[in-house]
Amino acid sequence: PLVSKAHYVKAIRERDYIYLKAESPLFEEHWKRTLATLAELRDYLRARNVSLVLVLIPDHVQLDRELQREFLSVIGAAPDRYDFEKPQKLLRVWCATNGVRLLDLLPVFQADADPRRLYFTNDYHLTAAGHQLTAGAIAPVLRKL
């Protein structure tokens, strides 16, 4: 591991607002900026007759239940305060509303026999296995386009 588990959990804490069920000003600010960026990208590509495919690659904490439990324990939070699938849920709605093709890899990663092998230890970056799984899911969609 490049960092300790404690350091990694702290890094998750710094961005945990994206998983909180309750809205927060920080989340609202970032979500508003995300929606504006996505709309600008959508419009730019549509004007050029280019298809947009939004690929959602899950975060390590979304898959690793042990990591979720440790994170919640360290910060002293109840599990019902968090929805670790919130980003995907919101982006699914945006894509459906805006006619944007979506490839959500969360179910693909969840179906892996050992999802923890897809990320480096104490790191949210994908391993070679994670990249291989991602490429295997994306390639057929791109071939169809």
Account of the 3D structure:
This protein has 145 residues and is mostly helical. It is built from seven helices and two strands, in the order ααβαααβαα. It has a two-stranded parallel sheet with strand order 1-2. Helix 1 packs across helix 4. The radius of gyration is 17 Å and the shape is globular. The N and C termini lie far apart (39 Å). The model has no long low-confidence stretch (mean pLDDT 95).
What secondary-structure arrangement, pairings included, does this model have?
Layout: H1 5-14, H2 25-47, E1 53-56, H3 60-63, H4 65-75, H5 86-98, E2 101-104, H6 106-110, H7 128-144
Helix pairs in contact: 1-4
Low-pLDDT windows of residues: none
Strand content: 5-15%
Distance between the termini: 39 Å
Task: Describe the strand arrangement of the main beta sheet, using strand numbers.
Answer: 1-2
Q: What is the global morphology?
A: globular
